[in-house]
Amino acid sequence: MPLVDMKDMLQHAYRHGYAIGAFDLVSLDFLEGIMTAAERTRAPVILSLAESHFEYFDFELVMPAVEIAARRASVPVAIHLDHGASLVSAVAAINHGCNGVMVDASHEPLSINIQTTRAVVDMAHACGVPVEGELGYVPGVEGEDAERHPGEVAYTTPEEARSYVEQTAVDFLAISIGTVHGRMKGKPELDFQRLKQINEALDIPLVIHGGTGLSDDQFRQLIANGVAKINYYTALSDAAAKQINKNTVTSNDSGYTSLVKNIRTAVATEAERCMHLWGAAGRADELLSNCQPWLPVEHLIIYNVHGADKADTETMIAEGHRVLSAIPGVREVFTGEAVQNDAKYRYTWLVRFCHPAVIDSYREHPEHVDFANKLFRPVAGERISIDYQTVAQARSRIEHSSNSEVMP
Ligand SMILES: [Zn+2]
């Protein structure tokens, strides 16, 4: 069960003065290394997938592994889309299993940033998914991340931040106070006065991108002033690369598995250091009892068809599969025909929603309404429709209530 509601997770960190690492992963070695660190330190963790990294791995292929890693963990985990470029990316991320999304329109003029972010928030909130926006601009270091994040630094102002959060309804805000994506050159100067003012103006969890190269003391000051999520990648990537370089020198075997040996350990060691430094270590159990579990809902329909032949029925089912799969918050659409010839109901739809909020937003979604009214209901007179929540959720509620009981 430890896939949990990311808003609950970051609110807890924000209220209790610690920060949760959102570690970008680019391979299974990173995924396993990050999870090892979280389990070892009993820290909550955010598994983060950056859209700009999708050229290095197949997002659809990696997501089932990420989700299994989260569900089998004993520490609370959330799965986040980092630097989502558009509404389309955010819908795809949610439908593939992310339970938090970032929309980054920070390079656009303010009005466009607000408009783009608001559209993602409306869609994501209807799926129960919280959203991180970005205001101000965190550029990439020349020669490293400058291609992904071109341009000059633009500092976030408290006034703009207040107006941006009011107009977009984002749940978390990434801000720019002097960090850069990639490796810092020299000693980074952070504007803590500005951070303090932004935190006082907003009272929501703040996010820092470009954490690599900051000193322990700078991290402590960030967290003391409202930073509850720290995006972290470059140092993990450096630790992995260093390990590979070491392997090329020390190993007698030049094969692939020898070159990538111990990358998991290298990633885990650096992630573990961060979890201790940021105060997330040891928070897993208290956080678990304060977070809603993140569990899907199965929307089941069983029905019989009247007034349509087999070919028409198959066309209707194929069209429904296409339309319904694309609705935000729909994880999977299963369409089936009864195995037994004498089944009371011949056909079924099994639509998996990512969260109970989707029961309502799906029902009202124009594409669903259109399909149901025009193609489905006219031929499916006899039908039963029920939404089922995963039983594990009920079990976790019982655990919650029994945990909170004072035993005599
Ligand atoms: Zn970033």
Description:
With 408 residues, this protein is α/β, with parallel strands linked by helices. It is built from 16 helices and 12 strands. The strands form 2 sheets. It has an 8-stranded parallel barrel with strand order 1-2-3-4-5-6-7-8, surrounded by 9 helices. The protein has a 4-stranded antiparallel β-sheet with strand order 10-11-9-12. The longest helix is centred in the middle third of the chain and has 17 residues, at 234-250. It starts with 5 loop residues before the first helix and ends with a helix. Residues 393-408 have low confidence and may be disordered. Bound molecules: zinc ion.
**What is the strand content?**
15-25%
- String of helices and strands: HEHEHEHEHEHEHEHEHHHHEHEEHHEH
Oligomeric state of the chains present here: single chain
* Helix and strand composition category: alpha/beta
Task: Please tell me how large the radius of gyration is.
Answer: 23 Å
pLDDT < 50 stretches: 393-408
How many helices in DSSP terms? 16
Q: For the record, give the distance between the C-alpha atoms at the N and C termini, rounded to a whole number.
A: 29 Å
Any ligands, ions or cofactors bound here, and which? Answer: zinc ion
Overall mean pLDDT stands at: 92
The coarse overall form would be globular
What's the number of extended β-strand segments?
12
Which range best describes the helical content: under 10%, 10-25%, 25-40%, 40-55%, 55-70% or over 70%? 40-55%
The largest sheet has its strands arranged as 1-2-3-4-5-6-7-8
Largest sheet: 8 strands, parallel, barrel
